[in-house]
Design brief:
Layout lengths: L2 H8 L5 H15 L12 E8 L2 E6 L3 E6 L4 E2 L7 E7 L2 E7 H4 L10 E5 L6 E4 L1 E8 L4 E2 L5 H7 L3 E7 L2 E6 L1 H20 L1
Parallel strand pairs: 2-12, 6-8
Antiparallel strand pairs: 1-2, 1-9, 3-7, 4-5, 5-6, 7-8, 10-11, 11-12
């Protein structure tokens, strides 16, 4: 676990602003390192919690992490679409990650991850737990609990083993594909 992870876990009194600053620095530094592969180098992940289940996101699949951003509600036939938010002078649709994974929709998600994609899109979730830097040996193809398999199974392809805990990795590319399929289906219904 890197220094940000230790800071988050060890100092509950740290303010959100300090935490956000530390996360931004660590996030930015992650892009200066070579991505992990079969070469033994570490790969960076953000661990989050959805409905009591812990998951991981690959840092390479997101372009920003924000806390406490205002989301303007948007009427939509897509229940997963929470609304719109502005990030770096770009209006971005924000989807509820819990809903996309098959859970009940989150009440008021605090965290938003902007995805690395040519079209602006973001996902929102309740709890950010820690940043992990793991070696390829810590990534395995198994470890899902039955509740995770039932809900998010199609978006989970690997898992991280860290200190006796297992964090299934959400493949944000398949989440993006699902969003696109739902948007396309909504458009075709409206065109009829």
């Amino acid at each position: 676990m890197n220094t940000v992870g230790k800071t988050i876990a060890g100092d509950a009194s740290q303010t959100n602003e300090q935490l956000l600053h530390a996360l931004r620095e660590d996030f930015d530094l992650a892009f200066s390192r070579e991505p992990g592969g079969g070469n033994g180098q570490a790969e960076n992940f953000l661990v989050l919690e959805i409905a009591g289940d812990a998951y991981a996101l690959r840092v390479t699949q997101i372009s920003g992490l924000f806390a406490g951003r205002s989301i303007t509600p948007l009427p939509s036939s897509l229940p997963e679409l929470i609304g719109l938010a502005g990030f770096r002078a770009q209006v971005t649709p924000v989807y509820d990650l819990a809903s996309l994974l098959g859970y009940a929709q989150a009440k008021a998600p605090k965290w938003i991850a902007v995805l690395s994609h040519h079209t602006p899109v973001a996902v929102a979730f309740d709890e950010f737990l820690v940043h992990l830097s793991v070696t390829p040996e810590q990534i395995t193809g198994s470890g899902l609990r039955p509740s995770q398999e039932r809900t998010a199974g199609s978006h989970l392809h690997d898992a991280i083993q860290e200190n006796g805990r297992i964090f299934p990795i959400i493949d944000l590319q398949t989440v993006l594909q699902e969003i696109q399929q739902r948007v396309d289906a909504t458009r075709s219904i409206k065109e009829r």
